[in-house]
Amino acid sequence: MSDGKDRHSEFDFLAVADSGERQEYGTGATRDVTTGKGRYDLLSPIALRRLAVHMENGATKYKARNWELGVPLGRFFDSAMRHLFTWLEQKLGGGVLDEEEQEREDHLAAAFWNIHGLLHTEEKVAAGLLPAELDDLAPAKAMIPCCDCGETTHPDVPGHTEGVLCRICAERRLTAMVNEGNTESAKATE
């Protein structure tokens, strides 16, 4: 679609990505190297088919792309582990599920799907595209009172539980030391 105006959409790619390195073939053809781009040619079509069937079943049960709206990482992890252990119980012959229940769901595909969702959501949270609260697996930082104002704060040094200043009080003390000409003490507190 060209009307003579210089317009670009998000799909008008104006350049080819270039690492600056080349791979040359015996025919004389050259391409950019593939290092660091992933090896999609090594993915198993069998595993991906089982994942796709599981995703189709999930889209029927819930709705397509429902999981992309944001599921806590802990929920993905818990479900992945549960499906892996259910599969392992069945594999070792010690499962308590009856035969019909065992055949109703592909537990390895379900574990794969949950790990897939965990990877996806972890990156989206890290990029700020999903709420940080979804990372419920991140260790909680201990809150302790500031020794000056009493407001609760996170200690900057793990294990420090006494004599900790909140950011505001630390800046206030540092400014006071600099203003008093006590630059050696100020440098030590930075």
In short:
With 190 residues, this protein is mainly α. The chain contains six helices and four strands; from the N terminus they run ββααααββαα.
Polypeptide structure, described:
With 190 residues, the chain is mainly α. The protein has two domains: 42-134; 144-189, no CATH class. The chain has six helices and four strands. The protein has helices at 45-61, 73-91, 99-104, 107-126, 167-179, 183-189; strands at residues 22-24, 30-32, 144-145, 152-153. The protein has a two-stranded antiparallel ribbon with strand order 1-2. It has a two-stranded antiparallel ribbon with strand order 3-4. The model has no long low-confidence stretch (mean pLDDT 81).
Largest sheet, strands/sense/barrel: 2 strands, antiparallel
Rg over C-alpha atoms, rounded to the nearest angstrom: 27 Å
| H/E element sequence | EEHHHHEEHH
Average per-residue pLDDT, rounded, comes to 81
Structural class: mainly alpha
Number of domains: 2
- For the secondary structure, the number of strands is 4
- The 3D shape can be described as flat
Strand order of the largest sheet: 1-2
Low-confidence stretches: none
**Strand portion, in percent?**
5-15%
* Distance from first to last alpha carbon: 58 Å
Count the helices. How many?
6
Query: Helix proportion of residues, in percent?
Result: 40-55%
